[in-house]
Amino acid sequence: MKAIAYSAFGGPEVLSVTDLPDPHPGPDSVVVEVHAAAINPVDNYLRGGHLDGVLDTHFPAVPGWDVAGVVVQTGLDTPEFSVGDKVFAYARKDVVGGGTLAERVALPVRTAALAPRSLSLVEAAAVPLTGLTALQTLRRAGVTEGDRVLIHGAAGGVGTFGVQIARHLGAHVVGTASAANHDYVCDLGAEPVEYGEHLVEHASEHAPEGFDKIIDFAGGASLDSAAALLAPTGTVASIADARAATELGGHYVWVRPSSEDLATLAGLIDDGHVRVEVARTYPLEQAAEAYRDLAGGHTRGKIVVTVR
Ligand SMILES: NC(=O)c1ccc[n+]([C@@H]2O[C@H](COP(=O)([O-])OP(=O)(O)OC[C@H]3O[C@@H](n4cnc5c(N)ncnc54)[C@H](OP(=O)(O)O)[C@@H]3O)[C@@H](O)[C@H]2O)c1
Fold this sequence. Notes:
Radius of gyration: 19 Å
Oligomer: single chain
CATH architecture of the largest domain: Alpha-Beta Complex
Mean pLDDT: 98
Distance between the termini: 13 Å
Bound molecules: NADP nicotinamide-adenine-dinucleotide phosphate
Low-confidence stretches: none
Number of helices: 10
Largest sheet: 7 strands, mixed
CATH topology of the largest domain: Quinone Oxidoreductase, Chain A, domain 1
């Protein structure tokens, strides 16, 4: 099969179109014909070798953890799925390699669910990693009805889902974004504020007594203002800054594969509570260009690589 792969750590230039053997399903996996695979900042960190102490890489490594496609082969014990099912998955394994930027991929059933009926497979591929991250982080922070919630990185891949899910939970949401994304963040259901030097002043106007939850989906300097903006009983959670746990008494979250949570996301999407934003698509052969685009750090929603 055709896949994108790399055999040494480095920038997008180490990626090339490669012929690799077709994957076999393990006992509790299914093989999927990939229609589309979304890309994520973590792929760039992994390929750069920056997470080498966290996850081993098996070269030649096919990148990508997000996928939507059609089941073409089931495993020995996979009653959850049948050949022909349209599925989506956050297909993270315990090693890096065997990823989703390929014509076929083997998916452990615990990473997959039936794709949302209302989406194309390109849109479905844009959901798993970021949608699960948003859902699991809001849950860990205990976001609930009536909460005043500040979401950093509201226009990004994770933030797009985070704002909508927090609104669905009944929270009042303020979201940080650059000025160019304020209309977009408004459409998602949040009050936009610009990040940067006037953040505390502007965000405080929306929550004079402080935020009940501060959710960091951006990293960088986002949490520098957390102590000033948090209500006395408030909680912080971050997906990109360990200070949330080590200095602020909150939570640092690393998204986990979960077929149950994917089914929850599919329900929210099919019921019209959450919409999906695909910023751009690239064909498989242009995966390196897609990763350069993502590394710019200002994607609105998701970038998706199309495979067929
Ligand atoms: N721990 C986990 O499980 C986990 C899971 C997913 C992602 N992450 C990490 O979380 C981060 C975000 O991921 P993503 O997929 O959402 O990235 P993304 O799609 O590239 O989005 C980044 C967004 O951040 C915004 N942004 C940039 N600088 C900002 C700042 N200083 N303050 C607020 N917003 C800012 C940009 O919006 P503007 O254009 O408006 O500036 C952009 O929309 C990455 O570092 C990623 O590696 C961690």
